[in-house]
Amino acid sequence: MTYSNYSGVLPVNLLPDEASPRWNNKGDNGWQLIATTMVGMQSVPGLVILYGSMVKKKWAVNSAFMALYAFAAVLICWVLWAHNMSFGTRFCPILGKPAFALTRRFLLHEYGGFYVPMADYVYYEFVFAAITVILLGGSLLGRMNFYAWMLFVPMWLTLSYTVGAFSIWGKGFLENYIIDYAGGYVIHLSSGVAGFTAAYWVGPRQSHDRQHFPPNNIIHMLGGAGFLWLGWTGFNGGSPFAANLIASLAIINTHICTATSLLVWVSLDMVVYKKSSVIGAVQGMITGLVCITPGAGIVEPWAAIIMGAMSGSIPWYTMMVLHRRSALFQSVDDTLGAFHTHAVAGLLGGLLSGFFARANLLRMMYPTSHYGPGLMYSILDRKPKDGLIQMGHQIIGAVFIIVWNVVVTSLICILISRIVDLRMKEEDLDIGDDAAHGEEAYALWGDGEKMPIRWQMPPRIPSMCRRLN
């Protein structure tokens, strides 16, 4: 027996037992669980390792723990109220009604219009929400009071993330207008803008830390980056909720764009600074992943190459050139540059998706929606008005996400500051992990610094070797 949906005509194995109902497609369900787990591993262990390795040694434990805590806290908030605020019954144009996503009846019924259980949907959208908060936290490493972070995570998830998700992906006022395939706006633009805003309110690191902040383990940093890159297969490949053609296209586009972006970023480093940078390569990788996300399954592979070239160069310019010249960027201490790698790259990807989106791919992904074709194709079809309207929608969506996150993140930080200090005490900032958690990452000398000359091998040891010979 067969069924038809936007993914094509697929065979369904009909089993009479309750564990495999007629609507459940085992292939789609299996892929969705794998894809979701890959996205979860981007955060734990991916960003846990990346953050713990990319910071100064004295902040390794604190940075990794911020990511781990956020992952756990978001899950509990998600199933208790946030999932339905993001994707449930409409309460107002920007928000759904809070409700539990815990009961067997809710989790094991069909996710409407697809052939997987609702549990897959709740799980998948949770890992998206979790990574958004963790990415935001990258702007705050090296000085935020952990107790303030514990309050910030559920408040920001509830008051900011749910609004963006419902407005663009749920049943909100932008759902039928904004092309955002897998979260260029909902996840990356919001996390970059909110992280930058929160960094303003928390305040900067100590001046010494801000000027001298070497990674404590570059090899581990690359390992965390690897989890992030390969995990993006599930990030973009899982968005159709089916093992279909769009999922396959999204995956290959994701890796093409990322590789291009990395190579362009490294090339610019070599041309301008005469030296390739491992950290720069990781930044270029991230901007490529972010840029392709809003259009991964709805653009052609050649467009993914162009998007990669732009995501490897425009965020490079804002981070390496504009950042150093701008008084605003200099006054706000964005520890890992999340504004450039996520806000700038996410905005770029959203606009380029509105430019390169192909009509037939949009119909395959969104059979019941009426998104306009990309501006380029509308010009080629001599209907530029349609493409201009879609670009206008993309801009409106970006403005909404930016304004909402600046305002709400500021209010959250102000409220938390009335309860507990946003920033660690100055004497604790001198110490780092041991002051915050009573633990240290490594029982090793130094803090990413070269060993002094006096630590050479004692002269008596070579003489002993000569006697032994």
Automatic annotation (TrEMBL):
Q: Where in the cell is it found?
A: Cell membrane
Single GO MF descriptor: ammonium channel activity
Residue ranges of every copy of the Ammonium transporter AmtB-like domain listed in the record: 31-442
- Which SUPFAM superfamilies does the UniProt entry name for this protein? Ammonium transporter
Q: Does the keyword Iron-sulfur apply?
A: no
TM annotation in the entry: 31-52, 59-81, 121-141, 148-170, 182-203, 215-235, 241-266, 278-296, 302-323, 335-357, 395-416
* Pfam families documented for this protein: Ammonium_transp
User: Mind listing the GO biological process terms from this record?
Assistant: ammonium transmembrane transport
Gene3D superfamilies given for it? Ammonium transporter AmtB like domains
Provide the alphabetized UniProt keywords.
Ammonia transport, Membrane, Transmembrane, Transmembrane helix, Transport
- Origin superkingdom: Eukaryota
Q: Does the keyword Nucleotide-binding apply?
A: no
Give the bilayer topology.
Answer: Multi-pass membrane protein
Q: Which GO terms describe its cellular component?
A: plasma membrane
| Principal cellular location given in the protein's record | membrane
Family membership, please give it.
Belongs to the ammonia transporter channel (TC 1.A.11.2) family.
Q: NCBIfam families from the entry?
A: amt (TIGR00836)
Q: Which PANTHER family does the annotation name?
A: AMMONIUM TRANSPORTER 2 MEMBER 3, AMMONIUM TRANSPORTER MEP2
- Provide the protein name: Ammonium transporter
Query: Organism source for this protein?
Result: Prunus persica
